[in-house]
Every structure is written in structure tokens, then in C-alpha cells.
Amino acid sequence: MRAPPRCRLWCFDGAGFAAGKLILGTLPGIDRPPLAVQLPGGEPFLLLDIGANPDSTAENLAQYARMGSIFAERVMGIPNPRVALLSIGEEKGKGDARIVKATELIEQTELNFIGNVEGRDLTRFVADVVVCDAVVGNVVIKFFEGLANYIFDLVRAEFYGSLRGRIAGLLMLPSMARIRTKFDHEVVGGTTLLGVNGTMINQNDANAELISKLGYKTVAVIHDTTDYGKGHNEYFSKALDKIGKAKIVGTFGVTADQQDFTAELTKIKALNPDVIYFGGLTPIGVRIRSQMDKLGIRAVFDGTSGIVSDAYVQGLGPLAEGTLAFREGAPTDKLPGGKFFMEKYNEQKYDSPPEAYGAFAYAATVMILDAIEKVGPERKKVIAELENVKDRDSIVGKITFDDHGQNTVPVITKYVVQDGKFVEWDESEYASGKRKLPGQK
After folding, report:
1. Pick from 185, 286, 265: nearest CA to 222
2. Given pLDDT bands bounded at 50, 70 and 90, which one contains residue 226?
3. pLDDT top residue among 226 and 10
């Protein structure tokens, strides 16, 4: 089965999950999108589900296996990834009835299914994709986080127990810092919501429109060779061509694990584009932008939602300044019902502010509850009712779902990095003219 080019959302919490389904919808054949995470270590592997669906069925687990295999192959670059079910024993038939049935379903597919693995196998990297329900998956990742901190605390205590230990600790400090970074969930980032139908078209339409409006004439494209990167390249190129004010002078595909971009960037430097468009995620984006500086390339760096993260800014420092990016959704206070949502949220006196997709999660919940009130709690009837949503008013604006369950009128927000953070373009000093991007008219 070929991976659809729009099949994931970078997601960090329950609000992101609910908003993902509201804004994007699910792909055909996907009942419940799972949350997946690449667990760090010597050889990263994909674990899913880690929190989205605590009551997954055997059919759901089989769907997760297929989605996880596609992600591992197309995004992580693992050919013919090994897929396994996490259970209480390696032998076939070990586990509850759901695991047994899921085993039968996965065995009927073309996946490289190796059977069951146990918890102790996770650090032995015997599988590239490990499938489980949300409860088990969430326990696993929280245990990994706690165990990593515990081990580093033990090592620190051992080093600082004597003068000799302190000296040894100073010598090993750089190596220990690198190792700790691999296990730091703050650095590794959020999880991925698989099986949702992304909005690359809308995002790249807005991107091409702004580039053209700013007067840029030439663009070089770099995209990763996953379906994610290829999709962005396709839709951006089409959008730019349709507007007709700027042209693409070169397109370069790079692999997801590539470290050195000297060859591609040297060719791009010779083309002297006004803008370098990047279709990919934060890790590669950081490397490319950094190497642009070393080669003296002064073009605007223009990215997708894949780089809108604190990790991008932190990884580049001052070099991130002036980066453009586009993402679905909008800050809460810019939504039609944003003021109402914030008033109600603040009345509850929560300890922390709402997450970025909090208002979308609220809108999704209201729709689901209204549907249940109308047709009852049966899942199929609720889904059928939601499929008929057309021009429904909500706090996030009008909602209309297409045949794939995708909201056809998503909000797209333009961003630029200013003073060490992503800010809305319309409120930036670049938009007002107080600051200028390279080559900005």
C-alpha cells in the first residue's frame, strides 16, 4: 500500500489530538488516528499508540501497524521495517484476546511482521515499529523518561562523590551531555498523530501568495524525499506557478537523515535565488539553515508547519531570525469565538493557559456532544451525523467537512521568527516595514 502524502500531524496533547481530527479529518480506512513517538537511543524505533485511544480494538491495532510501517519507511528511512506487537510474551498466542486477533489480522498483510515483543526487548531494538494500546504505550514512555533521569542522577552522584570522580566527570561532561540530549523529551519534541488528512494545499497557497506579494522573483526548493516533503514540494510549486509572479529555479530532494547539504547548497548559491523554500521538518531545517550561513547564502529561508517549533529557534539561535513559516490554525484571540472561549476557560481557574489547539478541541467536543444528543451514543450514527456538517458556526469559524472528513475552510497563519520566537507575520516589524527580510522590497 502506498503511503498517502498527507498522513500525519505533529501533536503534543489532547487538544492537539481533538483539533487534528476537527481540522484535518482522518484518511479513508482509518477509524482512530494513533499517537506515535520515535523513542530515542542508539537506534530509534517507533512506538504507537501512546495516548490517543485507550480502548483500541484488534482492528485498530492492525491499522496502527500499517501506519507505523509506512511512517518508519517513508519518514525514518527504514527499508522494510520490522513490525511487532507489545505483549506479555514472545510466543504467538500470548496476550489477551485483542492481541491474539490483531496478530491474525496483521499476519494477513504484506507487512514485515515479526510477532510479539516484550518490554525488555524495547532497548534491544529487535523491532522498528512496536504497536500497543494507548494505556500501555503511555506507561512505557513515562517509564523511559523517569528511568533516564534516574540513571543520570546516579551517575552524577557517583562522579561528585570524590575529587577523582569530579575530575573524571569534567572530562566526560561533553559526552554525557550528548547522551542526555538523546533522552531529553523536551529536545526530542512532541509526538506524531498518524492517519489524519493534512492541509498542505491551503498552507502552500498562503505561502506562495506571501512570497509573491513581497516581490520575490526566484525560488529554490529543497524538500525531504518522504511523502511529506514531496507533497509540500508539489503543492507549493503548483501554487507559485498559478500566481505567476515568481519562478522556481531549481528543486533538490534530500534524505531525512542527511547531514551534509554542501553539494545542494553550492548549486543553489550559483542560482542566486531570492528565497529558499524548505519542505521538511525541524532537524533538517536547522542543518540546512546553518549550512546556508557557512556558505554565505543570503536568501530568505521559507518553511512549512514542519519547522514551527521552539526546537527550530533554539537550534539556530540568531540564525533563525527572519525565517518564514505557515501553519494551520490561529492563536485563540484571533478566532471568531476566541474571546468567549478565553472567558469561559479563565472562569475555571486552571493552573495553566490553554494549549494552541484548545479552542479547536472545544469546538470538536461541542460538535460530538450535539451529535450524540441528536442521534444517540452509537458510534456509526454519530460519525454519519458529523459527515453531514456544512457551514456550521463555531468558535473557530465556519466548519464544513468534505468526503474525507477534512474541514474545507481551515485557518492558515503566517509566521516569521522575530527576536527569538515565531510571531504572526501581520503583527511583526517585518510586515510593518520596520525590519526587512533579505531582498524584501
Report:
1. 265
2. confident
3. 226
**What is the strand order of the sheet 82-86 is part of?**
8-11, 191-194, 35-39, 45-48, 129-131, 82-86, 112-117
Distance CA 399, CA 385 (A): 14
Q: What is the pLDDT of residue 356?
A: 57
What gap in Å lies between CA 430 and CA 437, rounded to an integer? 7
Q: Please give the helix or strand (H or E) that residue 324 lies within, else none.
A: strand 324-328
Q: Which residues contact 99 (CB under 8 A, 6 or more apart)?
A: 58, 61, 85, 87, 116
For residue range 235-263, list pLDDT tens digits in order.
999 999 999 999 999 999 998 778 999 99
Alpha helices, H only, 53-133: 58-74, 97-107
Which of 79, 84, 80, 78 has the alpha carbon at shortest distance from 114? 84
Q: Show the beta-strand stretches assigned E in 184-299.
A: 191-194, 218-224, 247-254, 275-279
337-380 pLDDT, tens digit each: 889 988 988 898 887 777 656 787 788 888 888 888 999 988 78
CA pair distance 266, 247, nearest whole angstrom: 19
Residue holding cell 444517540? 376
User: Going from the N-terminus, what domains does the chain have, and what CATH number goes with each?
Assistant: 31-145+176-194 (3.40.718.10), 200-329+411-432 (3.40.50.2300)
pLDDT of residue 404: 57
Which residues sit opposite 307 in a β-bridge?
none
Q: How far apart are CA 441 and CA 428, in angstroms?
A: 16
Alpha-carbon distance of 118 to 264, in angstroms, equals: 43
User: Going by DSSP bridges, is the β-strand pair 45-48/275-279 parallel, antiparallel, or unpaired?
Assistant: unpaired
Give CA separation, 376 vs 22, 54, 363, 382, in Å.
Answer: 20, 22, 19, 7
CA neighbor of 78 nearest in space, from 130, 27, 28, 117? 130
Element (H, E) at 414: strand 412-418
pLDDT of residue 419: 96
| CA 107 to mean position of chain CA atoms | 29
Which one is predicted more confidently, 15 or 389? 389
- Which residues, 6 or more positions from 106, have their beta carbon under 8 angstroms from its beta carbon? 61, 62, 65, 83, 85, 113
Start-to-end C-alpha separation, the chain: 47
